[in-house]
Amino acid sequence: xxxxxxxxxxxxxxxxxxDRGELQITALTDRNLPVPDARVSVSFTGxxxxxxxxxxxxxxxxxxxxxxxxxxxxxxxxxxxxxxxYAEYTIRITAPGYETAVINGTQLLSGQCALQHITLxxxxxxxxxxxxxIPAHTLYGSYPPKIAEAETKxxxxxxxxxxxxxxxxxxIVVHDGTPRDSSASNYYVRYKDYIKNVASxxxxxxxPYETLIANILVIQSFTLNRVYTEWYRNKGYNFTITSSTAFxxxxxxxxxxxxxxxxxxxxxxxxxxxxxxxxxxxxxxxCDGQRVQCPQWLRQWESMALGEQGYRAIEIIHAFYxxxxxxxxxxxxxxxxxxxxxxxxxxxxxGSDVMKIQEQLxxxxxxxxxxxxxxxxxxxGPQTQEAVKVFQSVFGLTQDGVVxxxxxxxxxxxxxxxxxxxxxx
Length: 425
Prior knowledge:
- The chain is α/β, with parallel strands linked by helices.
- Helix content is about 25%, strand content about 20%.
- It is built from eight helices and 20 strands.
- The strands form seven sheets. The protein has a five-stranded mixed beta sheet with strand order 5-4-7-8-10, with no helix packed on it.
- β4 (about 40-45) and β5 form a beta hairpin.
- α1 (about 190-200) packs across α2 (about 210-230), α2 runs antiparallel to α4 (about 300-310) and α2 crosses α5 (about 315-320).
- It is globular.
- The termini are far apart.
- Residues about 1-10 and about 155-160 have low confidence and may be disordered.
């Protein structure tokens, strides 16, 4: 097999990679509105001058799914494997009135759909156009191990615990470096987007679903402990968490996420890990368990093996943190107009929750005109079902016309986003 070398990794030529994955690209403005008719070219990062695919975005700002070559799936399922288990692609996107944007190193895994969002800046923008270079995945690249901390913080220290209850924040502030690196940038990131980014950076999307859930719960609990205790702000810093693996978790600016991880996070984003008589989310530390050992923490490769053996997520968690750990849930999601009613809305449903969804879909359709307008009468009829299906299609959800938890919270997220755009926030 022939290889091309770059400064950071070794790449097999795409025609020599036996498996396939999907890539879908979404072009957005800096206010998260779709950019239609943007021209997109995709090349292999090891050979960026050879364009493999040319396409363009539709009215929803998304391209069609592109089928591209990847290494064998076994590479991402074997802890002893030292060959890069994902392919890297370079994306170049142009649109009239916008700066050209380039993403180097979008990661594709066998059998998985990679979702790459790209923000296009206006030509008149004072900010430089994005040229994003995605670093190596933490299970493949070399990163410093976590500096051990106590899994709970003392509650009798004045000023340490500032929240009365666990709240899922709308945004967190990520410091893209070590805590004392004053040159590192701070980024305001939606909470769910942060979790999806970290999970896509630290575990492989090819792993069993229950393994994904277990690791996502661990990532969320760690994050919410930083939020709940105001860990860094109480030390005089102006951010919530860092991107340093030595101190926190690996977040990568501009990286792609994977559809399977996206869906798993949507399923459990309100959850975190608790112990009896401990109010704060547990600071659930972890390591890969291969290059770095951590006897009392979750070991990622071993969690994958347990998932393959049929272990459920909570059983995987118990295997590392003990039987006293349990899954808790926050009732309050900051920035969301209304929490999920606890049951799906579908054809024949009625009431105030249905009317709320109808009104929100109508507002969203102002920015996404593919979604048909509705009469907000509180009755979930065929027209409402069709509008829900179109919304699900536009935002990459299962098109079943049912407003379950995933669809409910995606409607809330988009409604808040378009409302703030209109208000100039």
